[in-house]
Amino acid sequence: MNEFKEKYGSWALITGASSGIGAAFAKELAGKGISLVLVARRKAVLDLKAAELQDVYGVEVKTVELDLTEDGAVEKLAEISKDIDIGLVIPNAGMITYGSFVKTPLEDQQKLLKLNIMVPMQMAHIFGQRLAKRGKGGIIMISSTFAYQAVPYFGNYAASKSYILYLAEALHYELADKGVKVVALSPGLTDTEMPGKIPMDFSKMPMKIMKPEAVVKTAFKGLSHDKSSIVAGGMNKMMAAMSQRMMTRSGVASMFGGMNKKAMDSEYI
Questions:
Q1: Which of 27, 49, 161, 181 is an active site residue?
Q2: What is the pTM of this model?
Q3: How many Å is the maximal CA-CA distance in the chain?
Q4: Helices 155-174 & 106-113 angle (0-180, nearest 10)
Q5: Can you list the domains of the chain with their CATH numbers?
Q6: Is residue 90 classed as helix, strand or coil in its secondary structure?
Q7: If 0-12 CB within 10 Å is exposed, 13-18 middle and 19+ buried, where does residue 188 land?
Q8: What is the pLDDT along the chain (269 residues), one digit of tens a residue?
C-alpha cells in the first residue's frame, strides 16, 4: 500500500466532481490509486469521467446523481456511502452570485448559503464523526481568496467562503488528536465553468487564471505540511496577505469594489 493510502485509506468522496476543481481532484486521486465516490447533478457527464478514470487508472469509481440543495441530500449521501470506508472527504460543490446584492434574486442568495455553507458543514459533521472513529483520514474544505475580505458585488459568496475558512481552521485543531487532517483550500480565479458565467472582463483584474490541476496540487501540499489553510497561487497569497496585514478592512473593500465595478458589465452593478 502506498503512503497516501496508509494515511487516508482506499476511498475518497468528492462533490461537484463533474468538472473544474472537483474533476481535477478526482483525476489526481485516481492517479494515487484511490477509488472514488463522485457526486454531481449531471449523471451523464459524471459517468463518462468515471469510465475514463477506471480505464486509465484501474480504480473503482461509484457515481451519485444528487442535487445537494434538496432537503435531506447530505443525509441521503451519507446513507448511500455508509458501507464504503471513505477516508478523504472533499465537499467541493458550490455556486456564486455576482453583481448588486439587492438586484440578485433572494432565492439565489439563499440557495448559495445552503450549497456553500450548510452542505459542507453537514458533510464535515457527518463524515468527520466517521473519520474520527476510523482514527485517520482527511477533509479538504473549499474556501476562496475572497474569504479574506469583504468583496463588493460578490458579497454573499465571499461571506460564505469566510465561513468555510474559519470552520476548517477550527476543525483542523479539533480533529487533529483524532488522527483526522482538515485543511481549507483557497483558490483564486481558476479556469473552470464558474468564471465563464460571470459578466466580467478578467483582463482588468490583477489575478492570473490558474489551472484546476495546479489548485488541487496546492491542496495536497497543505495536507502533507499539516496546514489549517492554504492559498493557491503566488499572486493570490500576496493579495490575501496584503488584505489582512497591510490595509484597513474598509480600504480593502473599497479596493475590490473599485476593481470589480470597473471590470463587471454595468448592467449588473
A1: 161
A2: 0.96
A3: 55
A4: 10
A5: 3-268 (3.40.50.720)
A6: strand
A7: buried
A8: 589 999 999 999 999 999 999 999 999 999 999 999 999 999 999 999 999 999 999 999 999 999 999 999 999 999 999 999 999 999 999 999 999 999 999 999 999 999 999 999 999 999 999 999 999 999 999 999 999 999 999 999 999 999 999 999 999 999 999 999 999 999 999 999 999 889 999 888 877 899 999 999 999 999 999 999 999 988 888 878 878 788 899 999 999 999 999 999 999 99
In 3-state terms the chain splits into helix, strand, coil percentages (rounded to 5) of: 55, 15, 30
- Alpha-carbon gap, residue 187 to 172, rounded angstroms: 18
Instruction: Exactly one of 8, 153, 157, 163 is catalytic; name it.
Output: 157
**Residue 153 appears among annotated catalytic residues:** no
User: Bridge-partner residues for 15, per DSSP?
Assistant: 39
Using an 8 Å Cβ cutoff, are 115 and 94 in contact?
Answer: yes
Residue 233: all three cell numbers together: 497561487
Query: Three-state SS for 69?
Result: coil
Place of cell 435531506: 72
User: What type of residue is 131?
Assistant: L
Active-site residue, 32 included: no
Cα 35 to Cα 211: distance, rounded to the nearest angstrom: 23
Residue 138 makes CB contacts below 8 A (sequence gap 6+) with 7, 8, 87, 88, 89, 131, 180, 181, 182, 183, 223
CA distance 86 to 92: 16
Q: How far apart are CA 238 and CA 215, in angstroms?
A: 16
Report angle CA 35, 39, 45 to the nearest 5 degrees. Answer: 95
How many degrees, rounded to 5, is the angle at CA 113 between CA 244 and CA 168? 50
Count the Cβ atoms, other than its own, within 10 Å of residue 201: 10
